[in-house]
Amino acid sequence: xxxxxxxxxxxxxxxxxxxxxxVKANFNIVGVVTKEDKIRGRNNAVEESPVAKVAHExxxxxxxxxxxxxxxxxxxxxxxxxxxxxxxxxxxxxxILALGTYKPLNLHGSLLPKYRGAAPMQYAxxxxxxxxxxxxxxxxxxxxxxxxxxSKSFDLDIKDNYTTxxxxxxxxxxxxxxxxxxxxxxxxxxxxxxxxxxxxxxxxITKEQEHLDLSKTPLExxxxxxxxxxxxxxxxxxxxQMLKIYEAEVFSDKQEAEIGTIVLAHKKQIILQVxxxxxxxxxxxxxxKKMMSASDFNNGVHDFTGVILH
Length: 310
Prior knowledge:
Strand content: 25-35%
Order of helices and strands: EHEEEHEHEHEEHEEHEHEEEEEEH
Number of strands: 17
């Protein structure tokens, strides 16, 4: 597809699937950089990032620095033509950005200048956007402020959550890269500066934002649930314990109980009163239990009707 020497920088699953697709499309990936291994679980098991696992699968040279900006000889030695990032997770210094023959590029999960920053996909869902996409942009020192060389959009469905959106974003990013990189190498793409008057920012989702807001309208509540599902999972408090909600849908505009009240828990239905209406809770998880449907939840929890969540 292209002979230029590409170093790919990324970490999560959506980046891993994109990397795999680029390798299969015969792009010349000469090295991979990802975040260092994590220690997980009670057994302190070491877990590599999804991108690291793909690098091993294709026998690609791999670097997992604690801080890339102070440990980048790996990149120098590879003599890359292009640095290409997709959800790497660390800010990259100007010294590193200058290593390639071509200006470095980033696949960003929004239609810039909308949603610069760390959580563009979550915010697209939270705000109920009908469309999003990927931008292929120049990496510069300022966060996601570089010129945009190409973009590709796709529609969002009310059933989409963060997990399904990640899969769509990965596929869209791969398609955009396959279409645009050869043109970029041939100097056929015109960089377009971002309109500064339309810039919006996103920030990392905090623990506080995982606590679902009952003062929202039914649609706003559903969108908040979508933005946090399936990971990390939004929650409400039930007897001071977290009750995670992974799927919800708008049920009615009725206001017949105190906000936070379970107005009905019977058979396949769990109906929650929020501001200006009610929502149906479809997937829930009690502490120490598995995620379960409303039907299974009702089979295991009796007298849930009338419970007030906070």
